[in-house]
Amino acid sequence: MDDEEARTRLLDAAEELFYCHGIQAVGMDRIRTASGVPLKRLYRLYPAKDALVTAYLERRDRRWTASLREAVAASAQPPVLAVFDWLARWFSEPDFRGCAFLNAYGELGSAAPEVVRVHKAELHALLAGLVPDAAPPALADQLLILVEGATTVAALSPGPEPALRAREVAEVLLRQ
């Protein structure tokens, strides 16, 4: 196994375990066992758990954001509404456990990696880029609150309903 394969296996294991059980509840030995990567190589690639957490969140950010962008681009719906349609599908996935970035911040507080804040800033920028030109400047802020609120509610009660209710509110905001 080369370093690239080891990195992939480690990140796959970290993503599954951290997202399902929480960052603080999962130790490096558990990730080593789940990945099949020897402990010495794990620590050579990620010298500390913080480095692995950051790499996991950075990879998740790239995947999550790309998936959202692709869904919006492929949708026949207005772009802002396509966001909520995508959220409804995400919230319905069997392993949905809320926002990995908010979960990380909830566990780690101010010690959470900077990628948490970067992810939220990127999401805000993405939403701002989807609003109509004539929309009030606060609309992107309001949409971000809708997305985050729906995600939090769905974490407690998985399924499409929180996204569908948030979509209804987004439609009202777009009409104003």
Automatic annotation (TrEMBL):
What domain of life does the UniProt record list for this protein's source? Bacteria
Q: Where are the transmembrane segments?
A: none
The UniProt keyword set, sorted, is: DNA-binding
* Pfam families the UniProt entry points to: TetR_N
Q: Which residues bind DNA?
A: 27-46
Domain HTH tetR-type positions: 4-64
Where would one find the signal peptide in this protein?
A: none
Concerning SUPFAM superfamilies, the annotation shows: Homeodomain-like (SSF46689), Tetracyclin repressor-like, C-terminal domain (SSF48498)
Q: Which Gene3D superfamilies match?
A: Tetracycline Repressor, domain 2
**Name the UniProt record assigns to this protein:** TetR/AcrR family transcriptional regulator
Organism of derivation: Streptomyces yangpuensis
Upper lineage ranks? Bacteria, Bacillati, Actinomycetota, Actinomycetes, Kitasatosporales
